[in-house]
User: What shape does this take?
Amino acid sequence: DASTPAATSIAPSEFARQIGHLEAEGFRVVPLLELLDALAAGNPVADKSVAITFDDAYTSVLTEATPLLRERGWPFTVFVNTGAVDDGFRGYLSWDQLREVGAAGGAIGNHSVSHAHLVRQGDDESAAEYRQRISSEIDDAAARLEAELGDFTIPVFAWPYGEYSDPLRRMLEERGLYGMGQHSGAVGGGSDFLALPR
Assistant: This one.
């Protein structure tokens, strides 16, 4: 979406240019979960393998990105903050539209309920209350995704704003989830699978 921050988004024309580059250079676009499972197991991954992801479930994922990816048969993942969908926020996909995304080859990952800064404990919040709030952010979103999108969902959580801490990482580990950050870097067998770069 061209109206969102340049640090974390690109214009549709730039996305189309990047897709063209991946195609022209012979990159192999693979499902995110397949890639993560292979790396975590220490299995080899083909050269030039990439996974395509989107955060926040903006409508542009369906209107701009999905057609380009569907015509190539390329898989992709959309991380959904479920509160925005449930509340019908303008500019976000609906559950029906997310089902269209799934049918077009999009996997759906968890991006919390509220997209809050999860690393910030409230001033009047006890440690137990904080842990319960974060548990709800993860678990309630997972339940909504499963109820609405079922087989399209994958066990991968994208940290809102890319922010995480050791206690939060352990919460993903307890749930058997992969975690995705926003920082840049290479991904390999020795990566932190609770806070992977993208």
Observations:
- Strands lie at 28-29, 49-50, 53-55, 76-80, 106-110, 153-158, 178-180.
- The mean pLDDT is 94.
- The longest strand covers residues 153-158.
